[in-house]
Amino acid sequence: MKTAVTIIGLILNIAGASLAGWALRQDYRKHARKPLLPWAAAREWFLVKVLRQTRSVAIHGGTARGTFAFLGSATGIVTPAADAPMDSQIAYLRDQVMTLHSMIGEQRREISAETGKVHKAVREARQDAQDAVTSVEEMARDIATGTVKIQLFGLLLIGMGSIIAALPVVLGCE
User: Fold this and answer.
1) pTM
2) Domain for residue 80, yes or no?
3) d(CA 152, CA 23)
């Protein structure tokens, strides 16, 4: 009986250690950039450096945004002579003030439109940054909890195996 219980404890220890090792290997393969074991690194070096075989895939992507704005206007100035009648000089000044008001109004509209574009670009950039942060958080959560259940089950099997292996000695069963 003692031998059977010891063998069962040994099997549970081996199974638990195997599961924990497998979970560790899965996590490492998923997130590491180099092989876990030295002979795997040597094999990779031989394939890449000697046989010139690469096993990596390069994905290149990019985004570009640009805005160009060209504005221009031409204005000619015709001023009344200094000895022109007062009515024509006042009419000239009124025209100039009206022109200034219309130019200021036009510039306000243009500035408002450009400000709206900038605000929209800032909102989009904030959303892109928030999406990137969310993606990184999800990846970190996956790294932290990816194979925890398997590792815990492996540790449970190791614990059960240790307890079962120690029972004959503790209980004094021979």
Assistant:
1) 0.41
2) no
3) 10
Number of structural domains (the chain) is 1
Q: 29, 36 in Cβ contact below 8 A? A: yes
Contact call for residues 2 and 174 (beta carbons, < 8 A): yes
Evaluate whether residue 143 is within a structural domain: yes
At 137, list the tokens: 């958080």
Tokens of 30: 């998923």
Tens of pLDDT along the chain (174 residues) come to: 677 777 787 788 888 888 887 877 777 777 666 666 666 677 777 777 777 766 555 566 666 676 767 677 776 677 777 788 888 889 989 999 999 999 999 999 999 999 999 999 999 999 999 999 999 988 887 776 667 677 777 777 887 888 777 777 767 765
Domain region containing 112: 2-55+85-171
Confirm whether 77 is domain-assigned.
no
Half-sphere exposure of 60 (CA within 13 A, CB side): 0
